[in-house]
């Protein structure tokens, strides 16, 4: 039987607008779910129960007097790298646990203005690094919850909250969303203000959304996108528009075979089957090779990332070196030794590669490829970034849509990538794909049917 916690954000909004569902009752159902599941999943860092209840009561009044905003009454979990007024923002770093910001990040202020209910902060790896967090994967506790947005994906997958914000510096929205069978969306670099985001990489950091439908994450992504004078990267473009209605216009997709070369047989088989299914439904699927080797892209990303990350953490490294996770600390030490000439050279190569990728997009709506090169591995790692990093380097918008379960009963995702600032068409394509794939079961429902305890 479907409960309130199983509702997607748009399903809940429809019920609230029609008067069938009270925002207070909806919040209470999610809090009950969290009380039941959080000891097992460990996805929440802190919660604002009283603040959320007050916001839910205000949402109820807004529906009654006709002043409800577009996200009115929908609870949201916020990755613990994004500043929230009155709620600690620590980035999984012990010396910052008592840090209570005096203002909201721009994206949080936009959510509040639209009527969303800020429920609490969800787990992240330390400063978005690659040392795994404490969060468990609801599909299998022995598998990674990935990162860095581990709590964001787990809370949505386990039906504790319908929407979360995450961040991506390599693959930290797309990868955990794929591993846990939810939808992930990162708009173009520069669409969403990073004002109020604890930085990892000046030229890679992006704020994204996780939910259980394309419509959900697109709505929230559009709400938080817009120019912001406090983030220079956002000043070139306005926010993107949502499609007026679902389209039945089949997409033109470019399948990048390079990603299959490095993917597991399980992922290759299930993603290929999904692409064949889309082609049968009318999608035009072309095949191509990337203009440069994936290994080069990973190397460029690594040089830029560790150089910029060491710069963002210079002060903390001097004061609190002993509190850094070992993997992150090693990366920061290496980054501090990278010569300026090497950093500048990689940025120049990045620009040239972007032009080569743009040439591939002529005549197609976007790229299609596996979201991850394998299903969720063990808890010792957050997983490889092979399938996500190229698009982070380019700063292009991406979706991951679950295509079903692999041979081990773990989620497999299909990634769709469009050119820069092409979010509206990308949303149409992702929605078209989602409507032609089978619905994703909840982890608990699958495990119960399979007899897994």
Outline the structure in words.
- This protein is an alpha/beta fold and 453 residues long.
- It contains 16 helices and 11 strands.
- α2 packs antiparallel against α3, α10 (294-312) packs across α12 and α10 (294-312) crosses α13.
Shape: globular
CATH topology annotation of the largest domain: Amidase signature (AS) enzymes
Taking the sheet with the most strands, its summary is: 11 strands, mixed
CATH level-four homologous superfamily name of the largest domain:
Amidase signature (AS) domain
User: How many helical stretches?
Assistant: 16
CATH class of the largest domain, named Alpha Beta
The CATH architecture of the largest domain: Alpha-Beta Complex
Q: Within the largest sheet, what's the order of strands? A: 1-3-2-4-6-5-10-11-9-7-8
Helix-strand topology string: HHEHEHEHEHEEHEHHEHHHHEHEEHH
Helix proportion: 40-55%
User: Kindly, what is the distance between the CA atoms of the first and last residues, rounded to a whole number of angstroms?
Assistant: 19 Å
Low-pLDDT residue spans: none
The counted number of beta strands is: 11
Mean pLDDT over all positions: 96
Radius of gyration: 21 Å
- Total domain modules: 2
Strand content: 5-15%
The class by helix and strand makeup works out as alpha/beta
């Amino acid at each position: 039987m479907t409960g309130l916690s199983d509702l997607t954000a748009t399903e809940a909004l429809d019920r609230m607008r029609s008067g069938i569902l009270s925002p207070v009752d909806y919040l209470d159902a999610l809090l009950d779910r969290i009380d039941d599941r959080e000891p097992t999943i460990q996805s929440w860092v802190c919660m604002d129960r009283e603040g959320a209840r007050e916001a839910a009561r205000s949402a109820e009044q807004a529906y009654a007097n006709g002043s409800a905003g577009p996200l009115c009454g929908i609870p949201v979990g916020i990755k613990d790298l994004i500043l929230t007024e009155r709620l600690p923002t620590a980035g999984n770093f012990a010396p910052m646990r008592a840090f209570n910001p005096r203002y909201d990040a721009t994206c949080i202020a936009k959510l509040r203005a639209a009527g969303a209910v800020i429920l609490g902060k969800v787990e992240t790896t330390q400063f978005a690094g690659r040392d795994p967090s404490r969060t468990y994967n609801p599909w299998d506790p022995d598998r990674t919850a990935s990162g860095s947005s581990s709590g964001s994906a787990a809370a949505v997958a386990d039906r504790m909250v319908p929407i979360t914000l995450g961040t991506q510096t390599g693959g930290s929205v797309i990868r955990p969303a794929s591993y846990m069978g939810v939808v992930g969306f990162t708009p173009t670099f520069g669409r969403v203000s990073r004002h109020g985001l604890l930085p990892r990489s000046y030229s890679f950091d992006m704020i994204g959304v996780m939910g259980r439908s394309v419509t959900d994450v697109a709505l929230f992504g559009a709400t938080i996108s817009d120019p912001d004078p406090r983030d220079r990267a956002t000043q070139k473009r306005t926010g993107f528009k949502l499609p007026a209605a679902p389209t039945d216009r089949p997409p033109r997709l470019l399948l990048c075979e390079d990603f299959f070369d490095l993917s597991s047989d399980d992922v290759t088989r299930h993603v290929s089957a999904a692409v064949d299914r889309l082609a049968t439904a009318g999608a035009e699927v072309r095949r191509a090779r990337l203009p440069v080797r994936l290994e080069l892209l990973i190397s460029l990303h690594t040089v830029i990332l560790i150089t910029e990350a060491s710069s963002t953490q210079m002060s903390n490294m001097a004061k609190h070196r002993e509190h850094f996770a070992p993997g992150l600390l090693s990366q920061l030490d290496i980054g501090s030794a990278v010569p300026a000439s090497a950093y500048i050279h990689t940025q120049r190569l990045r620009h040239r590669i972007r032009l080569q990728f743009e040439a591939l997009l002529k005549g197609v709506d976007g790229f299609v490829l596996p979201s991850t090169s394998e299903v969720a591995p063990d808890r010792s790692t957050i997983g490889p970034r092979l399938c996500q990093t190229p698009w982070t380097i380019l700063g292009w918008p991406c979706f991951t849509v679950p295509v079903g379960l692999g041979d081990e009963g773990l989620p497999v995702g299909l990634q769709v990538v469009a050119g820069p600032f092409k979010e509206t068409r990308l949303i149409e394509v992702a929605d078209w794909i989602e409507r032609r794939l089978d619905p994703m079961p909840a982890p608990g429902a699958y495990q119960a049917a399979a007899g897994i305890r």
